[in-house]
Amino acid sequence: MSSLQHPAPRLLVRRWTQLFIGLFLYGIALALMIEAAVGLDPWTVFAQGADLQTGWGIGLVTVLIGALVLLLWIPLRQKPGIGTVLNVLLVGPALEVGLWAFEVPEELWARILIFGGGLALLAVATGLYVGAGFGPGPRDGLMTGAHARFGFPIWAVRGTIEFTVLTIGWLLGGNVGLGTVAFALLIGPMVHVTLPRLRVPLPSDAVVAAPVVPSAPAAPTDAAPSDRGPAATPVAGPHEPGAPRPNPDDPTNPTAPIVVVGS
What we know:
Blueprint (H helix, E strand, L loop, with lengths): L8 H28 L5 H13 L3 H14 L10 H20 L6 H24 L6 H13 L3 H18 L6 H21 L65
């Protein structure tokens, strides 16, 4: 069998390991930023506000929000990957583990450092789980799905969604602060650095272009002159000895072969 159809077991092990580690570290990173208490990303502000109003625990609320977002994929005709489903199920419990393991520091400088470490860890975690190639997170899929379904610019879709959840989360009591601004400004460039370096190269990435073999130039032929003048000269067919051979490289030639490069 071809290696494109059956990837090496080592590659699959790496992808699954990277997926689970990335999702676990994503939850830990969110916990660090929550404990820092200097502001959160829009979706975590929303989850924190909903937790304050319901008392269900931010881990459970995160799972429920992810599930609701995933349901919105249905009218957008998006198909989740296994990584998308595991993102919904695992980030919330990992977040609770992080909140249990870390204590809230009192000094502002220490909380700022913890937030910076959580933000950096979040960028690495995103590169890990997205780079595993098992599907995007539910929130990213919502943005790209709305873009594909309605044709709105991706920046407008993302900005509208995140502004909406941020506003609702803030009204519910979620923590909005300088960390929220730092997240908005820095997470994009940081993921831009981590994702290419942590992306697992898949066999489907190797697209081999078919070589184009140039055809040999047609040999010039001289048609014998007719005694009856040019008006009576018969038109030679494509298979007659006196007919000029069509140039296969001429795009106006209907008999020129079509060469498909790649797939």
